[in-house]
Write a structure and sequence with these properties.
With about 160 residues, this protein is mainly α. The protein is about 85% helix and about 0% strand. Helix 1 runs antiparallel to helix 2 and helix 2 packs antiparallel against helix 3. The protein starts with a helix and ends with a helix. About 15% of the residues are buried.
Length: about 160
Amino acid sequence: MLTFLRIAHVLSACVWVGGTVALVFVGVPAIRKLEGEARATAMRALGRRWRPLGWGAMAVAILSGLWLTEIHGGFNRAAVDTDFDRTLILKSALVVLLVIGALIHDYGLGPRLQRELRAGSPEAPNTRRRLVLVGWFNFSLTIAVPVLGAIVLTYLD
C-alpha cells in the first residue's frame, strides 16, 4: 500500500506540475497571439480541458499526501518536534494557499475577466493584472510544494 500511495502521489504531482508548466510556458503564450473572440474561445477551451485533469491530479496528490502523512506518523505528534514535522507543516500550508489561489484564478478572476471583456468593461485590465499576479503566485507555489516534498523525504531516511 505504501508503494502504491507514493506512486500515486508522485504521478499526480507530476501531472499537476507538468501541466502547469505546459500551460504557463506553451498554452497561454500561444493563445495570447490570438485576437478578440478567438482568443477568448481558445482560453476558455484550454481552461475547461485542463480543469478536470489538473484538479483531479491535485485531489489525488492531496489525498495520497494525507494518507502518507498518517502512515509516517505526521498526525500523531504532539508538537513540531522535528524537521520532518516543520517541513510537512510548511508544505501543507503552501498546498492550502495553492488550492485557494487556484480556486480564485479558475473560478473567480478568470470567469470575471471573460465577462468584463465581453461587456467591454473598463475594469478588464485591472482584473487581468490580478489574474496574472494570482497565476504567477500559484505557479511559484506549484514549484515550491514538490521541492518541500523532496526535502520531507530526506527526513524519512
